[in-house]
Write a structure and sequence with these properties.
heterodimer; A: mainly alpha; globular; B: alpha/beta; seven-stranded mixed sheet; six-stranded mixed sheet; 32 helices
Chain lengths: 682, 873
Amino acid sequence: MSSAPEPTDESSARRLPVPRFFLEILLVAGGVLFSVIFFGVLNLYWQARERISQDREKIATYEARLSMGLADSAPQALVVSAGGKHPGKSHYLACGACHGQSGEGNAQLKAPSLRQLDSWYIERQVDNYRNKVRGGDPRDTLGSQMTGMVQGLSTKEAVSQVADYIASMREAKVAAPAPSLDGDVARGKQLYGTCVSCHGADAGGNKALNAPPLAGQYDWYLLTQMRNFKEGIRGSDPKDAAGAMMRPMAQALDDGQMRDLASYLATLALPGAGSLADGSGDQGGIDIAGLSPVAAGGKLFAANCSSCHQDDGFGRVGLAPSIRNRDFLALASDDFIKATIQEGRPGTTMAARKDLGEEELSAIVAWLRAMPTANPVQVTVDPHKVYNGDVAAGAGHYVRYCSSCHGPRGEGYSAGSSGPGIGLDGFLNVASDDFIMQTLKLGRAGTPMRSFVGANGLANLSEDDARDIVAYLRSLEVPRVPAPSAPVSQAPKTTLDPVHGKKLFSANCSSCHQDDGQGKPGMAPAIRNRDFLAIASDSFIRTAIREGRTGTAMVPRPDLSEDDVNDILAWLRANPPENPVSIHVDNTKRVHGDVGAGKAAYQQYCSSCHAPGGKGYSAGGVGPGIGLPGFLKAASDDYIIQTVRQGRVGTAMRAFIGAEGLASLQEDDVHDIITYLRHQQD
Amino acid sequence: MKRRTFIQGTAATAATAAALASSKGWAVAPGEEIELEKQEAPTNLLAACPYCGVGCGTIIQTRKGRITNIIPDKDHPTNKGLQCIKGLTSAEAIYVNRLDKPLIRKDMSDPLRGHVSATKGSFDPQHFREASWHEAEELIADRVAEIVKARGGNSVGLYGSGQLTLEGQYLENILMKGIIGSNTIEANARMCMTSAVTGYYKSLGSDTPPTCYDDVELADMICFWGHNARGSHPILFWRVADHKSKNDIPTLVVDPRRTGTVQGLEAVNSNNSYHFPTINGDISIHNAIAYALLERHPEAIDWTFLKEHTAGWESYVEEVKKGYKPSEVEDRTMVPAEKIYEIARHWAEATMKGRKRGTGGVLCIWGIGYNQHLHGQNNTVSIINLMALTGNVGRPGCGPHSQTGQPNAMGERFTGGLTGRLPFNEGLDNVEHRNRMADCWGIPRERLAAVAEMENKGMAVGMMERALKDDVLVMFLIYATHIDLPDVNNLVRPALSKTFCVVQEIYKDAPNNLYADVILPAATWGEWVGGLYVQSERRLFVTDGTGNPVKGCRPDMDMVIDKGIMIADRLGLDGKKIFPYQRKANGFYDPEDVFRDFIKASKGTDSDLTGILEVEKETGKSPYQQIRELRGIMWPAPTAAIAKAGGIKRRYMSQEGDWPGKPYGAFRHADGKLHIHMCHQDYTNYREITDELSKYGVEPNAHIIDRYDLLVKARDAGLTPELPHHEFLGKKAGTVPADKYPFWWATGVVYEHFHTSKTIRAGTTSKLVPEMYVEMHPDDAAELGVKDGQWVRITTRRGAIEARVSIGLDSKVRPARNTVPKGFLFSPWNLSVADSADPEKNRWLANGTTHRAFDPISGQADFKKCAARVELL
């Protein structure tokens, strides 16, 4: 799912849409040329400024509403009197008439089950009903009943209490709703792969993403709601930001698929108490004891790999390749797969997973190889084989057959191409000649890459032609990175070599940060620009390279020697594209702000791009993960402040501080945000 | 070490190649003139691919107003970043061999005075003079008006194209039916999929493919009928193959040849991939499967559906039971009975899965191999019968899904640019709709009423025969080649020689120019201002362009407007009122103005698009912008909500969703039902009927439009236009008597090429498959005494071509992709003029051999079943 999460702020009326606006721009960036986007950003930036002033008016309106007691207030902590009667119970009596006194719902009355829902979700829906954000559509007869019912909950407090009471019912022992549809559970499960990133692998929901739990709900109710989202009966009110997210999701489904999904969800166990905790759901600690290797592998794959490679391992174009298909499995040895999991694939979002042990790796491989279709193909890749083709002929073939997707010289995405950069050293250093050859011969199912060799190839090339292409790609190669066997114990050299640094950069960093270091939205930030270089100290960059950035595609590169890293730094700092600016960053500065205010500010201004909780790309954000320990460890408080003050040329990050900023924040607000981000880590 | 030296040694060459790549654009063949001035930033345009009807999303990269490269659009829902070799290299054919000035033949044919030009058949520049646009257009308008006044509007014919934009097609129809007052308007759609059109119409009540590509990934079984998808619609094939490799669904390919489609699916899993190598037996196969289902899988028969939503099922069931026991129709199916039962079992299983789930079932896909028959309409009708019997209609993941050849063939059908048709799925005989269209077009109602009375018997083929009979005097060829019509040398070329022929053409040595009296240089795909294409799943998609055609060329739509206004004025109509369009600052008309009028005219029809205008009112987004952002809208889009959701994906059985005032019920027929019509195959009088049919194209002055009774008889019995003399098979070449034709001879397409003009001029594709070939069975070759790679002549009663013999998958003749059954020969028609368009030198003209017999309702010619013999050279 490429859609980005909504901010967690419950009060959509309060939300300033500015960051979301950037988010929209960046979503477009996924499909459009970088250059186009760049100008688009500039242009839209001015529009955004205009909208800020409009938003100021909205704030004024909001304040007026607040004074009339109409607007929401910040979530309040609820106190449940120990052992005594729950304050929400009396409010719930009326609800229980339809939804059941244990919140189990009632199929006859078309009342959904409530007891699996969290209080934040109940509160939002009650508000939505009250404001006819939900249930206001004349086609939504059941929803319109609710718009009347919620008027009985006269105060905000009453709503909170009833919501909390409902949440407390989760422990009650009631049988899960019986399935009533005859959808295809297996297909539903497959389809659920798209939903998993928000609603969680166990369909337990995710507050950070505004996603309610789906497990434990009636299938007919889920089906109705999906249809409602699809038809715009629900989620089309501009105030229903979270619902709006579901609309495109539902629109991608036809009725049969919805039915399949609902039937699949009906098979999921009702989540137990406490499983609906805030956060993305920890996937560690998978228990595979007693399972067959294939079953264990399936479980591990679902927990660790499926959000990119999809539940079935068939991948998703533009996200991750299909790896559970005969073409790939024919090409990839067990060791190759295991090594890739453990070491990651530099230059892609495949991060190293050193935490998985041999038993787990073998199980994953076993599951991958237990494909739904039989008929495996056998291919041996000889990593030492060298194909000596005709470079000139290969160049001709490349221009004719490869350049449309991979770029004029294999630059890949950075040249606006639809295929990856196979002329980049990041690829050429990893792929052996035979790997390239076999890929040309076999194609790669689950990606647009097809076989190009033979009568059934996309272009009926001969093997000699393919050999020439391999030779041509190799001719693009700059000399290989110094072999790892080179002595590292030498004394650090005193002269820096930016030329060497550039080569190292293209070999090691360019597939994400792009050849020019200008980054790519949704993938990696620009790091060769004056704003970044002005505030990032050498040691900051060094740490990032050596230790990686946990939770992002930035993997640790301890294999690069100190000299190498210094050379890369030298190149980064050599002749940056614009005039250098000098900004003093006080790395010793520590700020102390207010966590609550910081959280609210973060949600308003930052979460649209950086994702809730600062989880960044991994949570579907278009900006990097600034709430992750890797970043927070490396970045000083003042580094963050200066970034928020200056913005970052070449990225979508704009200044947020002061009258010229995107949001006219005060420095104090940033202190709060930093404090919140750091507080999350504690 | 050696390797490194080697690379350095050739570095200079590599650098040259690289320089070529960067300075001349990408994927452009060396030596072609493409100027790029580097200082201008490249711009991307969204377009539908200019080739087949799959309609892949294509990004045209341009620099300084010139097209430099094509990249596949990974965000387009159809191709998802994949494209076939034709689309990927489509930029190569744009700036080569272009016409850039109007040309007037010095010795023009003058049909009113009985003068036939002596120079027809030549495109030698000395037979033409260059003219200004004004002069050429005045000449055309004067001549056409004169002929219309003397002989009536119906004496003007037009052969249009599925390469034109929807807007151009719409206006072209107004020009012909509204202004000129002619019902003689045809298009290359007629040779491509009108059998599907008329079949849909007969069964479902409207020419609407009810399915979409996304049904592929939902289907539990997929059948390809007469469709080598691997060659003709590769992206669709790859989607099916990928789906099969993920979900292991059974597949069936019905095709005489073991094509790449058959082999590709077998490579995924040969245990559930079936191939029925039938010749002409589709209808019998459908009926035999129906029999097997009724006999052994009663659970798969959807009686409720039949009773509630269909008409005519009772007699269908009865006649199938009576006459189509699989073991008793093997002479026609050419398939052993047990294979029919196996398919019936898979069919039943898939049906039950789909029915239970609410999505899925059996999806049937077909192409021209199924449409180009004397009984093409019945092929469509009989497959829909079988699908209705098992309820595989009206649910996602199942149903009939025809494929079109041209990128905008659907547009042609949609705009009604065919004899007797009006836009939006209605006929000229629908008085209410006709009057509405006349009002929308600003044409007097009685004028259209008069056109409705006119006949164009025999449609595309008939139009040419009528020209031979001096009944058609003017011929417009717009973005269409005449060599896609059958029996070119005996029918089409003599007809074009007699007429006053106006050609809109992009290439200098195009075969159309041979017979043109006036040639207007046209802008091609990617160069025009824009417009829409409609792909096989009803998706309207933009074909944006640079707005910078080769200097001197004009978009076809602009030519229609200019000509239309001039002719209208000469015929006493108000041209400016009919075509109220203004040139924009760039010098061109804006197709979006036309599209808005088109949308307005669609109101209330079964293909209503007015939701798009509602969205425009609501959001300010122009129709094209909406279509760009959604990567296409599937017609109809009658409400704003539907338009915003990308139109209607699937039709019938209420799959349309919330559509207030939907002008039909469960199906489009007035009774809201799907109509089942039993179709038969009866070979009893095969030889007699085909002997009579084979006179056409041979005997002078024998016009097949005079023998509709014969065509109907052949159609009703499910026959072919000819029947080979199989008794002479196995004889050495040269020993077969001159009047005997032992082989089945079929023409079709090859993957690397699209039709006959662009890909043979593109460096990459012409390099991959450069020459005419004939696929032959090794036993036939041995018996004839010919070897792989040898040149032979393939002769039919009407003409001959020369081709290289290609035997099997190891043939040295590219592409060596398919094998054929014994007694069967196949050649691609795509290379028809790849040797030369000049008739003196042209040896590869495939349609010089084909038969003009056509389906009496769909008008589609039968290119698949001719009788031929092989001669040595």
